[in-house]
Amino acid sequence: MDHFALKNGILHAEDVPLPSIADAVGTPVYVYSRATLERHAKVFREALEPLGTGDKKPLIAFAVKSNPNLAVLKVLQRQGFGADVVSGGELTRALAAGMAPEDIVFSGVGKTRAELELGLDKNIGQFNIESTEEGRELAEIAAARGIEACAVLRVNPDVDAKTHEKISTGKAENKFGVPLMRAREVFAELAELDGLNLRGIAIHIGSQLLDLEPLETAFAKVGELVADLRKAGHSITHVDLGGGLGVPYKAGENPPSPADYGAMVAAATKGWDVRLTFEPGRVIAGNAGVLLTRVVRVKRGGNGPPFVIVDAAMNDLARPALYGAWHDFEAVEPTGERMTANIVGPICETGDTFAKDRDCDSVASGELAVFRTAGAYGATMASSYNSRGFVAEVMVDGDQFAVVADRIAASAIMDAERVPDFLT
Ligand SMILES: *Cc1c(COP(=O)(O)O)cnc(C)c1O
Does residue 65 line the site of ligand 1, with CB under 6 A? Predict the structure, then answer.
């Protein structure tokens, strides 16, 4: 459920008509709904919180990479969320949004020494270690400081998440985590090290999962591993189950609800006696945002349907070009008429195509439209390709809205460039 709906024939974000945002801020612009973010956070929390109380109360760590905007992080911080970060930049954002250091987990295969040090400087709650090499390095840095870094070992369960290959992370050939087969031996080695408090296991098998079955299979493998590690004398107090729950991008897609997911997790983790961490991203932010765009012109097609050329492009919303992803396209003031169109951006690449042969609302030059479900992996993946600026972001709250990220003009990006003396 989201808060983008037609009122008097005009698409609104909560109580704000989208044309008023386009007038004030220009297009393209991402528009987020605070009420939708809060609703998703609450539903997710209510589905997972019953899994433990006291020091076993689950930690819900929002995957910052899905939408790192400070205002978005602030909304989630106020909902009691922590953060799952994958870079020093994201760590800095989570702290800036007021997230408690102990509620921050640091994931990622390529944390640099400087990033490991930053995590220790800031006293974050947990490092999710992805290799023996990383574990040794973190242990060495922490030991030199006379402290212990809290960590869990990310394992790769070799489970097919049945999602797009570029967002599958839990197959043996993927770069993430330590192969399950070697996990016992790696855990034993790292657990011995001074400077490391290795206290559990993490997994994350992929994103946009529309079926619980791969997660269930992976969790069962983690359950066995936890039992084995305990048998070997290790103390296992924490398990991080990652994120990955999908959202409906398209009519007919029916991802499991947070309640279904919660029930599955409850069954799968029964008797584990650990503190669970979750790292949801898309399921919180996806439907809480749209990309508002204006039609530049409608161009007659060759043999096929017309090209609807919009002022948003693959540099603003990369998912269609990157993953062939679907985003619903809707007119802001639909007439009820339909058309079949190729919806494209202005960038000089054929990949700058949002939809082919799409049955959609009829739109004409100058009219406003949205790409739906753009709140996750949208603005965060933006670039300035074709010397386009960085897209602006707005948050709506009831009948008010605020710019939460300025548009960064192409000229400002150019201002950061220099022609060296040897060329003048
Ligand atoms: C990307 C990522 C997530 C979030 O995935 P969603 O599908 O957005 O829920 C969680 N954990 C890790 C380690 C990730 O890389």
Answer: yes
Q: What confidence tier does 248 reach under pLDDT thresholds 50, 70, 90?
A: very high
Say yes or no: CB of residue 63 within 6 Å of ligand 1.
yes
Is residue 150 among the annotated active site residues?
Answer: no
pTM tops 0.90:
yes
Q: What are the residue ranges of helices labelled H in 49-179? A: 70-78, 88-96, 113-121, 132-144
Query: Distance, CA 69 to ligand 1 centroid (Å)?
Result: 16
Digit-coded pLDDT (tens) for 1-33:
799 999 999 999 999 999 999 999 999 999 999
Atom of ligand 1 nearest to the CA of 377: 8
Q: What are the residue ranges spanned by the domains of the chain?
A: 4-32+286-415, 34-283
- Give the model's pLDDT for residue 11: 98
Q: How far is the CA of 306 from the centre of ligand 1 (A)?
A: 37
Q: Under CATH, which number does the domain 34-283 receive?
A: 3.20.20.10
Residue 278 has phi, psi (to 5 degrees) of: -125, 150
Q: Is the fold of 4-32+286-415 the same as that of 34-283?
A: no
Q: Could you tell me which CATH class the domain 4-32+286-415 is placed in?
A: mainly beta
Is omega for the bond preceding 101 within 30 degrees of 0, making it cis?
no
